[in-house]
Amino acid sequence: MGIHKKGSVVDIEEVKAPTRLTGAVLEKKLARDQELQRIMTGEDDRLLLIIGPCSSDNEAAVLDYAQRLAQLQEEVKDKIFMVMRVYTAKPRTNGSGYKGLVHQPDTSKLPDLINGLQAVRNLHYRVITETGLTTADEMLYPSNLVLVDDLVSYHAVGARSVEDQEHRFVASGIDVPVGLKNPTSGNLNIMFNGIFAAQNEQNFFFNGAEVDTDGNPLAHAILRGATNAYGENEPNYYYDILLKAIAQYEQMGLANPFILIDTNHDNSGKNYLEQIRIVRQTLINRDWNPKINQYVRGFMIESYLEDGRQNEPIVYGQSITDPCLGWEKTQALIHEIYATLR
């Protein structure tokens, strides 16, 4: 029983040194971060897409996808701003299964967290430096933030983490957007309480030291659907639920109200093709109601090179976690969104 130390304490600066952004690449990254901030505050009315594989399990395939996405971003940049999902830590409901690149940098080998940390930084670094895109990741482990805080431009707090106080408090000290998902129960109060905590100053212990935070005015809502007591999916991208979420934003007086629709997970029932219909329906709702248009300003879409999923990493560019839209459908969907936007 107990916790058993397996190696020496990680030297954070040593891990970061080979993959620090400098020069023109750093300037471009910071410029894109400023664009993203203006979208979050409403100064820029482009639609936000947080898009990419469910999990970044294969470096070559992820970079292949990133190159394609970067080209597509150029085609639609006047109406759509994309941040690529480079998700490197995956929550596991029962603790088993693939836990992401940070745990297992090589899916054919045993977990190797020290090399996993380096692999995570290397992948974000390569996407940024080789494509010009900026990246998003899930903040599954708040203590790992210090290892990627200079690279990641958008953090998500997942459905199983949103009620955790440390996640909320750490989110309050991040200087880029943090999306907080509703919990799997669908309780919007929990999500909005998390946003309130993240937007305000906090004081707590972090990585062995007492810290104060400034609050993060870019913390916002991600609606990802719910699972009811019978294990059935209950979507929450519907018109009436959006109006309830907007009313709660207004009642609480939160800064920079912004709602992102997660088109997969419990909204789609993990039927990846449903993501297309969910986007279409939400765009119709935005056109129908000016308030929804004002608040609902982005989508989180799970997309990879090949449709669907697989249990073992055999097919190049196909997810080994949740099923994703393949590239052809992704490209068609983004062109459709672009044509729909005024």
Automatic annotation (TrEMBL):
<keyword id="KW-0057">Aromatic amino acid biosynthesis</keyword>
<comment type="similarity">
    <text>Belongs to the class-I DAHP synthase family.</text>
</comment>
<dbReference type="GO" id="GO:0003849">
    <property type="term" value="F:3-deoxy-7-phosphoheptulonate synthase activity"/>
</dbReference>
<comment type="function">
    <text>Stereospecific condensation of phosphoenolpyruvate (PEP) and D-erythrose-4-phosphate (E4P) giving rise to 3-deoxy-D-arabino-heptulosonate-7-phosphate (DAHP).</text>
</comment>
<dbReference type="InterPro" id="IPR013785">
    <property type="entry name" value="Aldolase_TIM"/>
</dbReference>
<keyword id="KW-0808">Transferase</keyword>
<protein>
    <recommendedName>
        <fullName>Phospho-2-dehydro-3-deoxyheptonate aldolase</fullName>
        <ecNumber>2.5.1.54</ecNumber>
    </recommendedName>
</protein>
<dbReference type="GO" id="GO:0009423">
    <property type="term" value="P:chorismate biosynthetic process"/>
</dbReference>
<feature type="domain" description="DAHP synthetase I/KDSA">
    <location>
        <begin position="37"/>
        <end position="333"/>
    </location>
</feature>
<dbReference type="InterPro" id="IPR006218">
    <property type="entry name" value="DAHP1/KDSA"/>
</dbReference>
<dbReference type="GO" id="GO:0009073">
    <property type="term" value="P:aromatic amino acid family biosynthetic process"/>
</dbReference>
<dbReference type="GO" id="GO:0005737">
    <property type="term" value="C:cytoplasm"/>
</dbReference>
<dbReference type="GO" id="GO:0008652">
    <property type="term" value="P:amino acid biosynthetic process"/>
</dbReference>
<dbReference type="InterPro" id="IPR006219">
    <property type="entry name" value="DAHP_synth_1"/>
</dbReference>
<keyword id="KW-0028">Amino-acid biosynthesis</keyword>
<dbReference type="Pfam" id="PF00793">
    <property type="entry name" value="DAHP_synth_1"/>
</dbReference>
<comment type="pathway">
    <text>Metabolic intermediate biosynthesis; chorismate biosynthesis; chorismate from D-erythrose 4-phosphate and phosphoenolpyruvate: step 1/7.</text>
</comment>
